[in-house]
Structures are given as structure tokens and as C-alpha cells.
Amino acid sequence: AQTVTQSQPEMSVQEAETVTLSCTYDTSENNYYLFWYKQPPSRQMILVIRQEAYKQQNATENRFSVNFQKAAKSFSLKISDSQLGDTAMYFCAFMKHSGNEKLTFGTGTRLTIIP
Amino acid sequence: KAGVTQTPRYLIKTRGQQVTLSCSPISGHRSVSWYQQTPGQGLQFLFEYFSETQRNKGNFPGRFSGRQFSNSRSEMNVSTLELGDSALYLCASSLGVVAGSYEQYFGPGTRLTVT
């Protein structure tokens, strides 16, 4: 079974600063997908960024980028130039590449952007 | 394109009753997954349907069931409700890994309160 660990329950950062959220996972699979989802307060879950395990290049989406270290089973999310709208719960998630559409989530990191 | 919709958004039920939640996926998406979100257990996978077939099931009792219709709309049912079933139930849809697209897009959820 796969497990996803987010060791930072809460983080806060000043607006415009850069913040990095940590995620580690455990799996015996070689092919899989990793995701970061954002869940703003009382709002729905939004896909932030995704990474295919077979791709060595780290994914980037505007201000969001990941540091994917496959050997270390680490998948951190970096948010640059943080904005007030980035305040949310952030979940790291894992999916096997086998037609299995099940997402395994970490426990989340509550990120607060301070004005 | 309209996003994933879930009805109802809020529901209050009494212990022992049953409840049916509905999910309409993004047009063209054939895979629908359900997740339970609680403060104590986090996000847990319930089941996934693709083309009216349940492909995966999480570790939940048989009181939790679901189905998918030919138009990809899905319903989940919980019978003999318990207090511990109080949760946010999230539905997510995707084109499906078999279609080369594995990103899941979430609906706003149904907040179920069992009293």
C-alpha cells in the first residue's frame, strides 16, 4: 500500500515571499503520478500541479513548481511570490499508473499568507 | 465547460436513516471517484466507477455503495447512517487513465451531518 506524508501541519509566510511545502511518499511502484491539490477555506479542491514519475524534469505552473526526487521519494511544492489567495490547505496525493484511479492523500498542510 | 456538480450541497440526517448523494461529472469524463473527508481521518477513497463499472473500492463497510449511469452521472448511497458518517463527501471526475488523462477534478462536495 502507498502512504503519503506531509510533515508540516501548518505554515505561514509573508505575502510576496517564497514558501516550500514538503511531501514524502512510500511505494514499491515504478510508474505513478504525484499531485498537489489546494483546498481554500470552504471552497472546493483545485488541482495545482502534477508530475509523472517517469519524467525527470520538474513540473512548473506559473508561480508553482515542484522538486521531485524519485530516489528519495520526495515531492515538495514551491510557491513563489505568494499571494493572499494562496491561503488554503494543500494536499499532496499519489496515484498508481495502472488504470487505478485511486488518489492517496497526505494529511495536508494549512498555509496562511500574511499581508 | 461546466465543472463537477454535486447535489445536495448540505444534508442533515438522523442515525439509522439512509442517504443518496449525486455527482455529475465534467462533460466527456467517464471516470468518477468518491472520497470522504473528515477532520480525524482526512481524505479517504471510497470507490471509483468507469463506464458504469466499479473498478476500485476503498476500505469502507458495505453500507457504502455507489453506481454510475450511462451518462456517467454517479450516485453514492449510505445506509443505516452512523454518527461517524458525518463528513464532506467529494466527487471527482476524469477522462480516465486509459484515455491518457489522469487528473481528477473535484466538485464542491456534499456536507453530510448525522445527528
The share of residues in helices of chain B is under 10%
- SSE pattern of chain B, N- to C-terminal: EEEEEEEEEEE
For the CA atoms, what is the radius of gyration of chain A?
14 Å
**Which consecutive residue ranges of chain A, at least 5 long each, have pLDDT under 50?**
none
Number of strands of chain A: 12
Q: How much of the residues of chain A is beta strand, in percent?
A: over 45%
Largest sheet of chain B: 7 strands, mixed
Distance between the termini of chain B: 37 Å
Mean of residue pLDDT values of chain B: 94
Q: Note the main sheet of chain A.
A: 6 strands, mixed
Shape of chain A: globular
Structure characterization notes:
The complex is a heterodimer of chains A (115) and B (115). With 115 residues, chain A is an all-beta fold. Chain A has no helices and 12 strands. Chain A has strands spanning 3-5, 10-14, 19-21, 24-26, 32-39, 46-52, 60-61, 64-69, 74-79, 88-96, 104-105, 109-114. By secondary structure, chain B is mainly beta. The mean pLDDT of chain B is 94. Chain B has strands at 5-7, 10-13, 19-24, 31-38, 42-50, 53-57, 64-68, 74-78, 87-94, 105-106, 110-114. In chain B, a hairpin with a 3-residue loop joins strand 4 (31-38) and strand 5 (42-50). In chain B, the strands form 2 sheets. In chain B, strands 2, 4, 5, 6, 9, 10 and 11 form a 7-stranded mixed β-sheet that branches. The chains are: A mainly beta (115), B mainly beta (115). Chain A binds chain B through residues 33, 35, 37, 43-47, 50, 91, 95, 97-108, and chain B through 31, 33, 35, 42-43, 45, 48, 50, 55-56, 58, 90, 92, 94, 96-98, 102-109.
